[in-house]
Write a structure and sequence with these properties.
- The protein is of the alpha/beta class and 442 residues long.
- The protein has two domains: 162 residues, Aspartate Aminotransferase, domain 1 (Alpha-Beta Complex); 257 residues, Aspartate Aminotransferase, domain 2 (3-Layer(aba) Sandwich), CATH 3.40.640.10.
- 37% of the residues lie in helices and 14% in strands.
- The protein contains twelve helices and 15 strands.
- Helix 3 runs parallel beside helix 9.
- The longest helix is centred in the last third of the chain and has 20 residues.
- The radius of gyration is 22 Å and the shape is globular.
- Keywords: Aminotransferase, Pyridoxal phosphate, Transferase.
- Belongs to the class-III pyridoxal-phosphate-dependent aminotransferase family.
């Protein structure tokens, strides 16, 4: 596992920067907290965005194949108009009657299986997961949480404590147990479900033996931070059943795979044929406006709400609801997930051709428009694979195309463009990627 908390980042002294950027970095370092980091060896400086493109102060365009927050494209005019119109009338909270809040809540839960018919709004994905953990612990009467070995679920105290991805300095809760995934462990797909179930049952035994019990299995259904380990579909189902046998709830973290990212489904958990107890939303829900939610079954929601107070000044505010409503309208009206699926198939086919060349592409995994592309030939040491992947990312950045890395060793390219990308964008990306691979492979 990489010990660098953000391998693809700027390190002072490693790049020659224009005076404008170097002075801005110096001012930044004098006022911002040390936890902030700039991405890429040579940081990017953007002043505006439009659709699939970001622009620097000199007008240079960068093709964005990394940002999954503006899933409908940067500065989507219809979304922005809905946001501005509501902001020009009133921004109020959920303690007042507001028809648009109810209208959107009804529309949102209609996109889920019928068992999931309640929603509570939040501001971010971290807050959604934080609240879901509170509900699960209250409803189950237990404290234990099971997560994957390199999971990321947020930055609040509670969610950081269940996020191994944040590094050794961020201590995991003693109530957390990590389970290995079949893909990174090298388990054949035919044995994946049994392997995952065995991992889950082992965690359950340990938590029960220590008197902690199982409150929740918390999973991102495409395991994005683990390296995008999406297959085989359904491999999590028996593990989900095992958690329910012991009284635990299943929380699907849909901050990354949700809102049509997987193409064939609105929600990532649907690929696996399971229905969670709670589902957490964030990032693309407002196309950049901070809004999230927890959608869940009536029983745990009512158990929690009957005796526990949860109110939030900004969660479910009318501007956020109007914005999220516009996002959902566009997703459904313009069949964005279906179009994204077609683009993912085009991208996958060309990537497979590139992988046949001696450039060091080791494997390709994807669910819709979320790809993990392993870099470095078989037999290459972990450090060498990571260095090669980072070289590819930064060569593409220099060529005007943005991606990053993921996985425990950070040797997988993370490719997740806005869902509105078109064939010409896919083709531009592929040309830049192949050019970077040729450069790095030498």
């Amino acid at each position: 596992m990489s010990t660098d908390l953000m391998p693809n980042r700027y390190r002072p002294g490693e790049s020659d920067l224009p005076r404008r950027e170097s002075e801005l970095i110096a001012r930044r370092d004098e006022v911002l907290g040390a936890s902030y980091r700039l991405q890429y060896r040579q940081p990017v400086h953007f002043v505006r965005g439009e659709g699939m493109w970001l622009y620097d102060p000199d007008g240079r365009a960068y093709l964005d194949f990394y940002n999954n927050v503006p899933s409908l494209g940067h500065c989507n005019p219809e979304v922005n108009a809905a946001m501005a119109e509501q902001a020009g009338r009133i921004s109020a909270n959920t303690r007042y009657l507001e028809p648009k809040l109810i209208d959107y809540a009804e529309r949102l839960v209609d996109t889920f299986p019928s068992e999931l018919d309640r929603v509570v709004f939040t501001c971010t994905g971290s807050e959604s997961n934080d609240l879901a953990l509170r509900i699960a612990r209250f409803a189950s009467g237990n404290e234990g949480v099971i997560v994957s070995t390199y999971a990321y679920h947020g930055t609040s105290a509670a969610t950081a404590a269940v996020s191994p991805n944040l590094g050794d300095a961020v201590k995991l809760s003693p109530f957390v147990r990590m389970v290995s995934l079949p893909g990174p462990a090298g388990v054949p797909e035919a044995q994946a479900a049994d392997f995952f179930e065995a991992q889950i049952r082992s965690a359950i035994v340990d938590l029960n033996r220590r008197g902690i019990g199982v409150a929740a299995l918390l999973i991102d259904s495409i395991f994005s931070s683990d390296g995008v380990w999406v297959d085989p579909p359904g491999f999590i189902a028996s593990g989900v059943a095992a958690v329910r046998e012991t009284g635990g709830l299943v929380i699907a973290d849909e901050v990354q795979p949700g809102f049509g990212r997987t193409g064939a489904h609105m929600w990532g958990f649907e690929r696996h044929g399971v229905v969670p107890d709670l589902v957490t939303l964030g990032k693309p829900m407002g196309n950049g406006f901070p809004i999230g939610a927890v959608v869940g079954r009536k029983a745990p929601m009512e158990q929690f709400g009957a005796t526990s107070r949860y109110s939030n000044t900004f969660a479910g505010n009318t501007v956020g609801i109007a914005t999220a409503d516009a996002v959902l309208t566009i997703l459904q009206r313009d069949q964005i997930p279906q179009k994204a699926l077609a683009m993912s198939q085009r991208l996958r086919a060309r990537l497979e051709k590139i992988a046949q060349q001696p450039y060091g592409v080791r494997a390709i995994r994807n669910a819709g428009l979320f790809f993990g592309v392993d870099i470095g030939p078989e037999g290459t040491p972990a450090a060498g694979r990571r260095a090669m992947a980072l070289d590819v990312v930064n060569a593409m950045r220099d060529d005007g195309v943005l991606i990053s890395t993921t996985g425990a060793n950070e040797d997988s390219l993370k490719v997740r463009p806005p869902l509105v990308c078109q064939a010409e964008h896919v083709d531009l990306f592929l040309v830049a990627m192949e050019r970077a691979l040729i450069k790095v492979a030498g």
